[in-house]
Amino acid sequence: MRLFLCSHFSSVGNLIKEEFENKKVTFIPTASIHEGYTGYVGSARKLFQKMGSKLTELDISKEKYSTIKSTFEETDIIYFTGGNSFYLIDQLRKSEADELLKKELTKGKLMIGESAGAIICASTISYIEQMDEKPEDYSQEDDKGLNIIDFYVLPHYLTAPFKKVTEKILDDFLDLNICPINNHQAIIVNDKSSKVICID
After folding, report:
1. Is 115 marked active-site?
2. Which is catalytic among the residues 115, 126, 139, 193?
3. What percent of the chain is predicted at pLDDT more than 90?
4. CA-CA distance, 6 to 15, in Å (whole number)?
5. Distance (Å, rounded) from C-alpha 197 to C-alpha 3?
6. Is there a smaller number of Cβ atoms within 10 Å at the N or the C end of the chain?
C-alpha cells in the first residue's frame, strides 16, 4: 500500500517529484465538481504537467464501471483532488470504484489523496462533517470510508479558513487517532508504516 496524503497537493507534490516523470496519472476531480472554489484543482493539474506526467482525467460520477476499471488498470498513479469528502465516497461506493481502487493499490500503485482524497482513506469519514456538508442526495446509509489506513487525516489544520473548525474537530474526537496536517505537510504511507513530512 503506497499512499501520499496531503492538504494541498500543489504545495507539497515536489516532495515526491521523482515518482511522476513519464508516469500515467489518473486525475480524479470528482470531489470538487460541486464546490464553489476549485483553484487547487488547476494548480495540481499544472504541477503534474510540469513534472512530466501524462494525465487522464476521470470523473467517476459520470463514467461507466468498465471505463473506470480499464483506466485504473492502465495507470501508474491514481490522484484524488480535494472537495467534498461525502460526495466523493458516495460516488466511489455507488460506482464500485472503491473496490477497483483497492485492487490496484494491492499491486503497488501509488494513490495520492488531497484533502477529501485523504479523508476518505479512513474507516469512517463522519468526523469531518463539521468541515464538509453532507450532500442532499447522499445515498449511503453509513459514513464508511475506504478503510485502508488506521488513522484519520485532518487536513488544513490551523490553516485559514479552517482554523476554528479543525481545532474543534480535534477537540471533539479525542478518542480517534487523528493526524492533523497543515497545507505544507504530507503523510507518506508505505504498507504498514506512515510518516509525516513537511516542506521547510
Report:
1. yes
2. 115
3. 94
4. 11
5. 13
6. C
pTM of the complete model? 0.96
- Which among 105, 85, 88 has a CA at the least distance from the CA of 148? 105
Can you read off the three cell numbers belonging to residue 20? 511522476
| Cα dihedral: 2, 68, 137, 131 (round 10) | 20
* pLDDT, tens digit (0-9, with 9 covering 90-100), for 33-62: 999 999 999 999 999 999 999 999 999 999
Q: Give the model's pLDDT for residue 61.
A: 97
User: How many distinct helices (H) and strands (E) make up the chain?
Assistant: 7, 9
Which entry of 66, 70, 156, 184 is annotated as an active-site residue? 156
d(CA 143, CA 67): 26
Taking the CA of residue 51 as centre, how many other CA atoms within 13 Å lie in the half-sphere pointing to its CB? 23
CA 164, CA 53: separation in Å to the nearest integer? Answer: 36
Residue 92's pLDDT is what?
Answer: 98
What is the three-state SS of 41-65? HHHHHHHHHHCCCEEEECCCCCCCH
Is 8 catalytic? The answer is: no
Question: What sections of 75-140 are H helices per DSSP?
Answer: 85-95, 97-105, 116-119
DSSP 181: -
Condensed to tens digits (0 to 9), the pLDDT of residues 73-127 reads 999 999 999 999 999 999 999 999 999 999 999 999 999 999 999 999 999 999 9
